[in-house]
Amino acid sequence: MSIESLVTRARHICDVNGARFTTIREKVFRLLADTHGGIGAYELLEQLKASEPAAKPATIYRALDFLTEQGFIHKIESTNAFLLCHHFEQHHPAQLLICDQCGHVEELHSSPLQQEFVKLASEKGFLIQRQTVEAHGSCQSCLKKASND
Length: 149
Fold this sequence. Notes:
This is Ferric uptake regulation protein. It is a single chain. It contains 6 helices and 5 strands. By secondary structure, it is α+β, with helices and mostly antiparallel strands. It has a 3-stranded mixed sheet with strand order 4-3-5, with no helix packed on it. The protein has a two-stranded antiparallel sheet with strand order 1-2.
C-alpha cells in the first residue's frame, strides 16, 4: 500500500474523530510508513530534523502519543520502538513477531488467540483494556541466511 493512500486514510480518520492531523504529525506518520520494522523515537527525531531542524524530543513524543491514540501505530514495548499499523481503521489487539537479527516486525491478528487471552484474563477477574503480544525470534529471511552460512 502506498504512503499516499495511508496518509489519505489517516486524514479521513482524523476528520471523523475531530482530531488535527498537523504537519508535524503527518511528517512523523510518513517517516513511520517509510520504515520497515520498528523504529525508536530518537531515530525518528533525527529523520524529522531533516525537514524540521527545530524539532526537539518533545516534538516527536507528542506526535507519537497522538498517532498511538488514533490507533495509527503500535508501540513495541520490549524494544521501545514504534511500528505503523496498516489496519488502523479500527482499534484492535495485535500480536507482533519481532526478528532479533534484522529487526523486521510482522503484525498478526489472531481472533482465537485474543479470545482465549480475554477468557483466561476474565477467569482471573481481569479486564484487558489494550493488548499487544510480542514474540521474539528469527524471521524466515534470517533463518534462510543462517542455514546458507
